[in-house]
UniProtKB/TrEMBL annotation:
Organism: Desulfitobacterium dehalogenans (strain ATCC 51507 / DSM 9161 / JW/IU-DC1)
SUPFAM superfamilies per UniProt: C-terminal effector domain of the bipartite response regulators, CheY-like
PROSITE patterns hit by this protein: OMPR_PHOB, RESPONSE_REGULATORY
Gene Ontology terms, MF aspect: phosphorelay response regulator activity; transcription cis-regulatory region binding
Transcription regulation in keyword set: yes
Entries under SMART domains matching the protein: REC, Trans_reg_C
Pfam families in UniProt: Response_reg (PF00072), Trans_reg_C (PF00486)
Name of the protein: Stage 0 sporulation protein A homolog
Residue positions, PTM 4-aspartylphosphate: D56
Annotated OmpR/PhoB-type domain residues: 131-230
Keywords attached to this entry: DNA-binding, Phosphoprotein, Transcription, Transcription regulation, Two-component regulatory system
């Protein structure tokens, strides 16, 4: 639990929508910062230090995809929810590929946005420092430092990638259904589809597998979900 208010940065160029989101988040108890452009958002990142960013995809100048990429390249910790319009499936997937944790399609119910935020924050808090580390071949996950090493080199993970990897390592050899993983990582009130999960799995494979097209660790169970391969496992207290 955090003693201070959770900080949410709302990046939206339409003033009426931005204020609508801000008012609902403030009513829900969050400390909210506002930015009307990608450039303003990047300027606020290092001073406001948000826990989560609500990021509109269609921004003037630097668009949401560029902002998302910049955040992930410099500050891997903030959670990111992207706001997209209907019919922007390609951009939606691109946002997830660049490191967004979730997305919502406009128009949306503000209560659903708050539910998504709460689910992401619960997941983040659930996977904050524990007592164990996991070693699988060249991979070593330190859950005290929240750090992944591959061949003794640190690998940057987004909060969602970290949560997925920890879930896999805690359940070696177990068949994990997509719906089960969505509920565990995004919360039981998640309204998205399994495409979100598949994109995050693909990104995670690209970071941990020597050959992502022939994964050694994360195996696909066709029509069902995924399984973490049990070979070369070890645990440290």
């Amino acid at each position: 639990m955090h003693e201070n208010k959770v900080k949410v940065l709302v990046v939206e160029d339409e003033a009426s929508i931005r204020r609508f989101i801000t008012l609902n988040l403030e009513t829900a108890g969050y400390e909210v910062g506002e930015a009307e452009s990608g450039e303003d958002a990047l300027a606020l990142l290092t001073t406001f230090l948000p826990d989560l960013v609500v990021l509109d995809l269609m921004l003037p100048g630097m668009d949401g995809l560029e902002v998302c990429q910049h955040i992930r390249g410099t500050m891997p910790d903030p959670l990111i929810i992207m706001l997209t319009a209907k019919g922007q499936d390609t951009d939606k997937i691109m946002g997830l590929e660049l490191g967004a944790d979730d997305y919502m399609v406009k128009p949306f119910n503000p209560f659903e946005l708050i539910a998504r935020i709460k689910a992401l924050l619960r997941r983040r808090d659930r996977y904050e420092p524990g007592r164990r580390a996991y070693t699988y071949g060249s991979l070593h996950l330190d859950t005290v430092a929240n750090k992944l090493l591959k061949n003794n080199q640190e690998v940057e993970l987004t909060p969602t990638e970290y949560s997925l990897l920890k879930m896999f390592m805690e359940n070696p050899g177990k068949a994990l259904r997509r719906e089960e993983m969505l509920n565990a990582i995004w919360g039981e009130d998640y309204f998205g589809d399994t495409k979100t999960l598949d994109v995050h799995i693909r990104r995670l494979r690209e970071k941990i597998e020597d050959n992502p097209s022939e994964p050694r660790h994360i195996k696909t169970i066709w029509g069902s979900g995924y399984r973490w391969q049990k070979e070369t496992t070890g645990r440290l207290p």
